[in-house]
Amino acid sequence: MTFEHASKLQNCFGGQITIEYLDGSDERGDKNSSIALNIVKPLFPKKIEFATNNRSISMASQKAAGFVRVSRYWEQMTMSTRALISLAGQAKFGNRKVQAPRVNNSLFGADNGYSLETYFNVTHFNQVLIFGDYATLIGEKDYEAECSLADATHVAIYFLYEGNEEKTKQMLQLNEKQYDDINKKAGKVGWTECPILRNYIKENSKTKFFCVNVSKFTEWDKLENKVIKGAKCLTLSNWRGIGRSFRTHFSSKHLKFHERDLHFALKPSEAILKEANRFRRVLHGPYIAVHVRGEKVLLAHNFSDYKAACVFYTSS
């Protein structure tokens, strides 16, 4: 390794490092070995300083023109939280409030699980969203109260991602021909009617269903104008936030803060803080916490009683 490599490593704190050893030969056939060093700079969240004020209270209570919820998020707690925040950043365009999801085994969804308040201080969560000029969260009862009204119009959207074909066919129970037909129609203008979603998403009998090609939409306004068309209540399925790969491509240039910055500013609930303090008292001193997602490894080896053992240990 050269001095140049060492210098780069010294200044890459927090970055992602890829080191590749290349063993080849030059034009004359002489062996030539080298080291390729690639460093991706870290993107640390910004620290947000703010105080609760009257604007926060008035904005949180402001009447919305519409509402949006997600039937199910497809990742674990961290990425689902960011997907929720990114949705709030887009929902602002339709003057919509976002239904706070339920949480079940670190998965977000609309149907079952614990309230989001079990994990986060939701009052503070909304204050953070308001400070960032994002839409705010509402509870499940508030959503149902507004969207169960006789005059409420409903739209449900399923997002189609490139490279995610097999997952879509599996979830919607589509054969090859059915999927190709939907994908082809959605590929032309960006969306197509998708009545087959009625078998997948529990919705109002008057709901209009659409499949949307994410590559055709970079502005949420376009989705509101072309597909949603003023519907009061919107349900999204297969929502994975904004980014590359299996994510939507909506612009976030209008936002003052990135979703990761707001995520970093959130506070845990009182219940979580209480549990953390109890854990600290048991340890009697400083500690480093490491979260290992090992449940699938344990299940693969037939350790069926591992959950009971863990619960017993943490509660004793």
From TrEMBL:
This is Uncharacterized protein.
